[in-house]
Design a protein that fits this description.
- With about 190 residues, the protein is α/β, with parallel strands linked by helices.
- It folds into 2 domains: about 70 residues, no CATH class; about 100 residues, 3-Layer(aba) Sandwich (Glutaredoxin), CATH 3.40.30.10.
- About 45% of the residues lie in helices and about 15% in strands.
- The protein has 8 helices and 7 strands; from the N terminus they run αβαααββαβαβαββα.
- Strands 3-5-4-6-7 form a 5-stranded mixed beta sheet, with helices on both faces. It has a two-stranded antiparallel ribbon with strand order 1-2.
- The longest helix has 22 residues.
- The termini are far apart.
Length: about 190
Amino acid sequence: MNGLTRKPPILELILVSCLLLVLTITVTGLQDKEVQFVTNAPIKASISNVLGSNASTSNASIRNASISSAFAGSMYKAEKEFPDVPIEVNDKNLDSMRMLYSPFVVDFWEIGCRPCKSVDPTINEMALDFKGQIVFGKLCIDRNAASKKKYGISRTPTLLIFKEGTLVYRHVGNYPKQKLEEIILAALDTS
């Protein structure tokens, strides 16, 4: 065999079986999310070693094999997706959301608040209009007392505007969509 030693076929079967299983699990979990695949040279070399030096390990075959969520940190990275609807925010995820998304605008609202109800469709529209640029979130202060206290929310609706995880502007009250857009863009432009 040209002086080359070939790995036992059982290793090839195990590797292919694992990749197919992980691919099935991952594709089910990804559904409509966009993912950017990144080839990792050491992993490509490891696959070459397992399959044998004569095996084809083109970028396309490695990319297809790299859908594995079990190796997510080293095999691929998902692009951060900016949703087109507001994210449901609560005491547990507010800090991680404001760090993950920049800019991030959070609508603090409360149950029974008429101005909150009237600004709700405007927030939904702006989330769609600014998809890919600004992420919007909604937090009910009746269910999230820690966030209400932390940010000193006393009146609703209150919009908190975060840029790179830092609070850059606070706006209280309901205004027409165009005015809210101007307020948000101005706050982000000056920060």
